[in-house]
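Sample pair:
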Amino acid sequence: MYAREMNNRDTQLAAIPIDFVVKQGLQEHTEVKRRPYSTLIRTWAKDQGQAELGEEIASRLKTSKEPERLKDVRNLPNSVAPKYRTGDKAELLVKIIRDIDVQMKNDSNWKWSLVMKVMLDEGMLVTNIPNKFDRLICSMIPGKGIDTVRKNGDYSILQDLRSWRSWIDDSEIDSDEVINRIVCEDIYDRFKPLIS
């Protein structure tokens, strides 16, 4: 009898609005204390088939201790080559990176390590340190969690002194390298409007 009474009460209580969860989370002052709120939002959004929106909403709960987001997309950090760091080129670079992030969610062959390889080979980056690249990419994409970029792909490819353009195109010799080369060609195509 008690269980039935409880179920009736449960159905009488209205669903908790996401704005309420965000408001409650913002009352906490540390990332650790806010984490359950952002996890709840992400989990609910994923359950509802709106994971990307959930990430966007949960990102409102980031504390100021998180890596600093771009205040002005027209001024990028100094890990980016000077000619791509400011103005319209900086804005276009951020747009391309955000488009690549969307593609990455839909194609498991796309890796941030390959994006970094193309950007290094094309002279768009001035450092080959994955941690700095991670911070750069996370600063460009709202809600992108720190370390997610650094852990996405095999960064040992950066030690390969050959350009991605010189990678093998014969799958009988090395099928992994062929796939990486094809993905790098697609990544380069995304960057073409910026480079040319």
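Residues 118 and 188 are 7 Å apart (CA to CA).
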